[in-house]
Specification:
By secondary structure, this protein is α+β, with helices and mostly antiparallel strands. The protein has 3 helices and 15 strands. It has a single domain, classed as q2cbj1_9rhob like domain (Jelly Rolls, Sandwich), CATH 2.60.120.620. The protein is globular.
Amino acid sequence: MAYQSIWYFSNLPEEIVDIVEKDLGTYFDSSFQESKLDGDVVNTSRRNSTNTWVPSHHWIVGFLWHYVNKANNENFMFDLTNIDCESVQYTQYAEGQYYKWHSDSGLYSLTSPGTTDTLDKQKQKDIFAIKNSELIRKLSFVMQLSSADDYEGGNLQILDDNGNSYFAPRARGSIILFDSRSQHRVTPVKGGIRKSIVGWVVGPRWK
């Protein structure tokens, strides 16, 4: 039986995670912008955070790709091709920031849990584009860069098929992977800064 999500406590030495964080900070901190939705839309009522993009040839992405393949072979067994847009997000949530309920695939759920929002024209166009593309997001992954003591709140919360929610681990260096169709959110940060690397892996459309 496959699980909706799987995670690894990588046990990376603190010094190694420090190097990852320092390297990303040196080369990418200056390019942080407000996080966008639907390609190029800032909507802080749904997502309030900052991020920048790290190309897939960066060494940390190669490290994460090992865990993507490990998780896929052990649990998901999806037909995967590559990392979406050949890049990953380096993301930060400061005090008061959050990301409301959503799915990464764009096909599984069109509204947040407990809502009856109708689709506007832009969402309809986005869904049409996704349905008619050759590749879709199938697997999402998150690497925790901040330690659990660096921030309050800011939990990655995932909703299962029965409507029950659970929290992903907060340990520094842990790597969480889950089905991109899953509803999930980042709860509001109450203090400190939450840093993570986020990415998606695509494959042929479901049949």
